[in-house]
Amino acid sequence: MSSTVTYEYITRNPDIHTYIKNADAAVKAQGYTEHSFAHVEKVAFTVEMILTTLNYDSRTVELGKIAAYLHDIGNVVNRIDHAQSGAVMAFRLLDNLNMPAEEICAIISAIGNHDESTAQPLNAISAALIIADKTDVRRSRVRNADMRTFDIHDRVNYAAVESKLFFSPDKTSLILELTIDNNISSVMEYFEIFLQRMLLCKRSAEFLGIKFRLKINGSEVI
User: Fold this and answer.
1) What angle do CA 46, 52, 54 make, to 5 degrees?
2) Is the dihedral of CA 97, 41, 73, 50 positive or negative?
3) What is the C-alpha R_g of the chain?
4) Rounded to two decimals, what is the model's pTM?
5) Nearest 5 degrees, angle CA 30-CA 31-CA 33?
6) What is the number of other CB atoms lying within 10 angstroms of the CB of residue 175?
């Protein structure tokens, strides 16, 4: 059974817009970095890049983008277990749109397994989503305008003056290349909060049959 539910339709759905805006407002109130449209759209773009480069079919790519767009809506319930809450919410939204069960399963499995506390790459979509989500490190995600009150997450993201994710020429490695301003945050601080996420990216890349490499300030560290 084919589906008429597309990424474009999902991005134009006013109810989904409301969930994303309110989910972001909830994490903002708790002092977290940006989790709104800029984040989910960037994650969707990255999922598309990964799956397309690895020659997955167009519908798998489409489902991956939908999962990416919806992956953080569970934050509207609570930051704790937001991946599982979001998966349940996505199920209801997509079921009401008459999406086939097989496609819903692929999407909610990816959403329910994207948070590092419980994450597992279960299929290509979930593996691509994990990598895309965990590699979104950038200065523009920081909301706090007062550097004197930055916590470690603010410092690390604000220190990332450049962030690029790309495939090696032979497409056997996915490389995250960061330029970090050491006057704002040290590389050690980056690993203090991102080591588990980077190791998860490594596992997810292996699931996809490739390697994950991390370069910081010109040096390869993973």
Assistant:
1) 105
2) positive
3) 17
4) 0.95
5) 120
6) 16
Range 193-214 average pLDDT = 96
**Angle (nearest 5°) at CA 8 between 36 and 16:** 45
Shortest CA distance to 20 belongs to which of 52, 43, 46?
Answer: 43
Backbone angles phi, psi at 91, to 5 degrees: -55, -50
- pLDDT by residue (tens digit) across 6-40? 999 999 999 999 999 999 999 999 989 999 999 99
Q: How far is 120 from 129, CA to CA, in rounded Å?
A: 11
Question: Residue 205 carries which side chain, given as an amino acid letter?
Answer: A
| Beta-strand relationship, 219-220 and 211-216 | antiparallel
pLDDT given at position 4: 81
> Which residue reads 């990416």 in tokens?
68
Per-residue pLDDT averaged across 182-190, rounded?
94
The residue type found at 24 is D
